[in-house]
Amino acid sequence: ISFDVIHHVTFVNDWLPSFFFLLKKKKTRFIWGPIGSNDPINKKFFHDSRSIIKEKLTTLIKFLFRSFDPFFHICKHKADLIIGINDNVQNKLKISSEKFYSMPAIAIEHEKRNIDLNKKDIDKFIIISVGRLIKIKNFELALLAYENFIRQNNLTQNIEFQIIGEGPERALLENFVNSNDLKTKVKFLGKLSMQDVLDRLESADLFLFPTLENA
């Protein structure tokens, strides 16, 4: 079968090659992306040496693949267009402007963009964060800021921090909440549907996005 266009939509990975270039023929156009990855996480965000070592090893592996994997370089050369999640990808992979296009990898449908802010809860100040509960999403820093905000302003009621998402760091975050007497002021809502997330946003006053990922 001959293809006119081959488009490998990745899970935002800019250090493993796409072997779809093997299907490319003379008149075939090969599009790779959106690709990208986070920059190394500063060690001050980790609590133990094991996590720091793991992060350094991950960064090293990505560097080795980008630098020395021949299939990665063949894929980069064969691609007619490479889509990156930001301009940093172009600099990191040394891609020419003629074959690179920058476009965010995360979005929602156009008809769901309009949020009615008039629906927000006027009796309570609501803060929301959404994402997978993993280190790079940095929910721990959001909770630290929230706890500091409550303490400095002596807020005892009518405020709530809603965390939407699941992940391996949930137990750590719940332990922080319990240790700082925030159980009545923080709600872990788990994984919700897109519509439920949008409904929650309509009732909120502030959206926190504390990720360590580069924008």
Q: What would a concise description of this structure say?
A:
Helices cover 33% and strands 17% of the residues.
Can you walk me through this structure?
33% of the residues lie in helices and 17% in strands. It has 215 residues and is α/β, with parallel strands linked by helices. A 4-stranded parallel sheet has the order 1-2-3-4. A 4-stranded parallel sheet has the order 7-6-5-8, sandwiched between helices. Helix 3 (87-93) links the parallel strand 3 (81-84) and strand 4 (100-102). The radius of gyration is 21 Å and the shape is globular.
Topology:
Elements: E1 5-8, E2 29-35, H1 49-68, H2 70-78, E3 81-84, H3 87-93, E4 100-102, E5 125-130, H4 139-153, E6 159-164, H5 170-179, E7 186-190, H6 194-202, E8 206-207
Parallel strand pairs: 1-2, 2-3, 3-4, 5-6, 5-8, 6-7
Strand content: 15-25%
* Helical amount: 25-40%
If helices are DSSP runs of H or I spanning 4 or more residues, what is the number of helices? 6
Order of helices and strands: EEHHEHEEHEHEHE
Low-confidence stretches: none
User: How many E-type strands?
Assistant: 8
Mean pLDDT comes to 88
In this structure, how is the largest beta sheet organized?
A: 4 strands, parallel
Distance N terminus to C terminus? 39 Å
SS class: alpha/beta
